[in-house]
């Protein structure tokens, strides 16, 4: 991933005091980069080293929206772009890039852009997601019991490992 992050971004990621917080900061930076390349409509072909995020604040509260993070493009601050960030829970970040593609396109003609519209998020739980779902096959309780009894099933990490240093 060193090809995808700038040296300063790596310094920020590695400055976190434990591996869980480093992983968390890695995911936050990745969400920001992904939001930008989706906003301009170019996808993964964009050289992610060209963009650098100076995240602020470093710690985010769950459910609160922040827009203080700054993006540099080719070393220059992009003042026409705002990044709204939300921490959904202890493990998931959302970042939305809000910008003015017209001015961006003129300044960086080699990067095609699409219109960016602001959309509000609605929090959905599992029941909301599966409310209209139709099973593809009949339920097999034995299969579920077998799955739950596996020794190699993933375990959630305790929230204590994510606490401040």
Mean pLDDT: 83
By DSSP, the count of extended strands is 6
**Principal-axes shape call:** globular
Counted by DSSP, the helix tally is: 5
Residue runs with pLDDT of under 50 for 5 or more positions: 112-116
Helix content: 25-40%
Task: Give, in spatial order, the strands making up the sheet with the most strands.
Answer: 1-3-4
Radius of gyration: 20 Å
CATH class of the domain at 7-119: Alpha Beta
- Helix/sheet category: alpha+beta
In short:
The protein is α+β, with helices and mostly antiparallel strands. The chain is 30% helix and 15% strand. The strands form two sheets. Strands 1-3-4 form a three-stranded antiparallel β-sheet, covered by helices on one side. It has a three-stranded antiparallel β-sheet with strand order 2-5-6.
